[in-house]
TrEMBL record:
Organism of derivation: Sphingomonas natans
Start and end residues of each PhoD-like phosphatase metallophosphatase domain: 101-453
Protein name per the record: Alkaline phosphatase D family protein
Pfam families according to UniProt: DUF7800, PhoD
Cross-referenced InterPro entries: DUF7800, Metallo-depent_PP-like, PhoD-like_MPP, PhoD-like_sf
Ranges where the DUF7800 domain occurs: 1-78
Length: 541
C-alpha cells in the first residue's frame, strides 16, 4: 500500500471551503480527499500534465462556517495509511468570535527546537490558523547545502535536491501532524532561496544591465533563484489564496500560478478570518536593492497593498500586516547600519566579474583587531564624507544582513510608507468611531522580540517577531547589534523594545472584536527565562 511522499497539509481556508495539499510518487489523479459528512473530492496536480514533483491540491466547497471536519486521503478507493487529519472552517465574516492565531518562522531541520511545545499548544488552544513567515527550509545551510553544492548543477538535478530538502524537513514529527490539522499560510524569505537574496549584487537585474562583466554571475544566480521559486510555488505558494478565491475588492489576490521564467514578480496575498484581515507581503520575489524605485516590494505589489488598504470593509475590526523581516527592530542610525550599511564590496567584485569574490567573500571575525579597526575607519569616512572606501574585512560577508533590514537606507522610504499607510487603514471612512486593531508580524532574525510602535497620535501598535521555531542565534550581545532598544524609525514613528528572547519561540496573537475596533494582543512563547544583553559602540563609529 502506497504512502504519501509528503503531507497532507491544510491550506487556505475560509468560512465555506478549504484546500488540502499532498505530494505523491505516482499520478495525483489516483488520489481523492474524503471529508466526513461532506463527500469525496479529487486531487489535481499543481503542475498540470508535466509531473515533476507530484504535488497536488484538493479543493473542498460547501462547508459550514466554524465547523470541524475530519478527512482522509484515498487512493483508488483505499485509504492511504497515516494520511489523515482535520480542519476547522473560519467563523462567518460578521461573527464577533474571539480570534486566535499563531506565528512561526525559521524552520531549520537539524533540531526540533520548539516544535514539540508548539504542536501541543496548537492541539490545546486550537488557533484558527498558523502563519509561517519565511525560511520554511534552509536550502543554503541545512545538509545537503543546495546553494553550495548545486549552484553549478543542471536545473533538473538542483530542483530534485530542493524538493528532497522539503520532504526531509517537513516529514518530521511533530511538524507533519501540525500541518495536517490546522490551516497553514506560508510566505517565503531568503533561506527558501539563499541567504540575503535580493540584497546582493549578483541578485540584481539593475546591476546586470549596468555591468556587462557581471552579467554571467547574475545569470547563474538567477537560474538558481528561478528553480527555488518554482519549487516554492509547488510546495508552498499553491496553497495560498489566489484570484479565483474571492471577488471581494479587499482581497485582490493576483498570483494564481507559478511565475514564468524571466519575470521578477512579488507573490503577496491577503485573506480574511471573521473580522480580521491578514496581509502577507513578499519582500523577496521582486527585491532588487539597487533598483532606484521601490527596490524592496516593487510597483505591482505596492498597488496591491494600497488596494487592500483602500477597500477594507467597515466590519473588519483588525488588520495584521506580515513582513518576513521585522518592520522596525533596528535603528537606522545605529551601529550595525553605520558599520555595514554603506559598504559596496560585492558591487565592486560584481562589476569586475570576479566570481570567487562575489559568491564567496572572505571575512574576518572578532579575533582580527587590525581588520576591525580598518572597517571602523571605513565606516567613519563614509559617515563624515559620504564616500565608502570599503576598507577592512570584518563581517564583510554579512553585508546582506544589513541590507535585508527595513532600516537600511534603500528600504527606509518604503518602510515609513508601509507603516503610515497601515495606520491610515485603521480608520473607516464611513464609520469615524471605528479604529481597527493593528499588528505587524515578522520573523527572519533568529531572535524573538516584541516592539511597541508609536505613530503620531495614533493608538500604540505592536510589532511581533517570532524567530525562530527551530533556528536561533545565541550570539551575544544581541541588543545594539541585531536589534535596538528605543529609536526613531522615521519622522513621527518611534519604536521601543518591550521583550526579547534568544530561545526557540513561537508567537501567539489574539484579536477580540468589540464593535468599535478589535483589541489585539500578542505574546512570545518559549521555555524558561531568557537573558540577553547589549553593547554600545556608537562612540567609535
Amino acid at each position: 500500500m502506497r504512502k504519501l511522499k509528503l503531507g497532507p497539509i491544510v491550506g487556505h481556508t475560509d468560512d465555506a471551503s478549504t484546500r488540502v495539499w499532498i505530494q505523491v510518487d505516482d499520478n495525483p489523479a489516483n488520489y481523492s480527499l474524503r471529508v466526513d459528512e461532506v463527500g469525496l473530492f479529487p486531487f489535481e496536480a499543481t503542475e498540470g500534465d508535466a509531473i515533476e514533483f507530484g504535488t497536488a491540491l484538493a479543493r473542498v466547497d460547501g462547508l459550514q462556517a466554524d465547523h470541524k471536519y475530519d478527512y482522509r486521503i484515498v487512493r483508488r478507493g483505499r485509504f492511504v495509511p497515516g494520511a489523515r487529519g482535520s480542519f476547522r472552517t473560519f467563523p462567518p465574516q460578521a461573527s464577533m468570535t474571539n480570534l486566535l492565531f499563531c506565528a512561526v518562522s525559521c524552520n531549520g531541520a537539524e533540531t526540533h527546537g520548539a516544535w514539540e511545545q508548539f504542536s501541543e499548544y496548537v492541539k490545546q488552544a486550537q488557533p484558527s490558523f498558523v502563519l509561517m513567515m519565511g525560511d520554511q527550509v534552509y536550502l543554503d545551510e541545512d545538509p545537503p547545502n543546495v546553494y553550495k553544492e548545486h549552484l553549478d548543477s543542471d536545473s533538473s538535478t538542483r530542483r530534485k535536491v530542493m524538493a528532497e530538502m522539503y520532504q526531509a524537513n517537513w516529514s518530521r514529527e511533530p511538524l507533519k501532524s501540525t500541518f495536517a490539522n490546522v490551516p497553514i499560510y506560508m510566505l517565503w524569505d531568503d533561506h527558501d532561496i539563499r541567504d540575503g537574496f535580493g540584497s546582493l549584487a549578483q541578485d540584481s537585474p539593475t546591476l546586470a544591465e549596468r555591468y556587462p562583466r557581471g552579467r554571467p554571475l547574475y545569470d547563474k544566480m538567477n537560474a538558481y533563484f528561478e528553480d527555488a521559486r518554482d519549487v516554492f510555488w509547488h510546495f508552498q505558494g499553491c496553497r495560498n489564496p489566489g484570484p479565483q478565491d474571492s471577488t471581494d475588492p479587499s482581497l485582490p489576490n493576483y498570483v494564481g500560478g507559478p511565475i514564468s521564467p524571466g519575470v521578477r514578480k512579488a507573490m503577496p496575498y491577503v485573506f480574511r478570518c471573521g473580522r480580521l484581515v491578514v496581509l502577507m507581503i513578499d519582500s523577496r520575489g521582486e527585491r532588487d536593492a539597487f533598483r532606484k524605485d521601490l527596490p524592496i516590494l516593487g510597483t505591482r505589489q505596492w498597488a496591491f497593498i494600497n488596494e487592500v488598504f483602500a477597500n477594507l470593509p467597515d466590519d473588519v475590526e483588525a488588520l495584521a500586516v506580515v513582513t518576513p523581516t521585522p518592520i522596525a527592530s533596528q535603528d537606522p542610525d545605529g551601529q550595525s547600519q553605520k558599520l555595514l550599511g554603506t559598504r559596496t564590496d560585492d558591487v565592486d567584485s560584481f562589476r569586475k566579474g570576479d566570481e570567487q569574490a562575489t559568491f564567496h567573500p572572505k571575512a574576518t571575525g572578532t579575533d582580527d583587531a587590525a581588520e576591525i579597526a580598518k572597517t571602523i575607519v571605513s565606516a567613519r569616512i563614509s559617515s563624515q564624507f559620504n564616500v565608502q572606501p570599503n576598507w577592512g574585512t570584518f563581517q564583510r560577508n554579512n553585508l546582506d544582513e544589513a541590507r535585508d533590514q527595513w532600516s537600511h537606507r534603500v528600504a527606509r522610504r518604503e518602510q515609513a510608507t508601509l507603516i503610515h499607510h497601515a495606520v491610515a487603514a485603521r480608520k473607516s471612512i464611513t464609520q469615524p468611531s471605528l479604529e481597527r486593531g493593528l499588528i505587524f508580524v515578522s520573523g527572519d532574525i533568529h531572535i524573538g522580540c516584541i516592539f511597541n510602535l508609536k505613530v503620531g497620535r495614533s493608538r500604540g501598535i505592536t510589532s511581533l517577531t517570532s524567530s525562530g521555531i527551530s533556528q536561533i542565534d545565541s550570539t551575544q550581545p544581541l541588543v545594539g547589534v541585531f536589534i535596538d532598544e528605543d529609536f526613531s524609525v522615521a519622522p513621527g514613528i518611534r519604536s521601543v523594545l518591550r521583550e526579547v528572547t534568544n530561545k526557540y519561540n513561537f508567537g501567539v496573537v489574539q484579536a477580540q472584536p468589540t464593535g468599535r475596533g478589535a483589541v489585539v494582543s500578542a505574546a512570545l512563547e518559549y521555555d524558561g527565562s531568557s537573558t540577553v544583553f547589549g553593547i554600545d559602540t556608537q562612540g567609535i563609529l
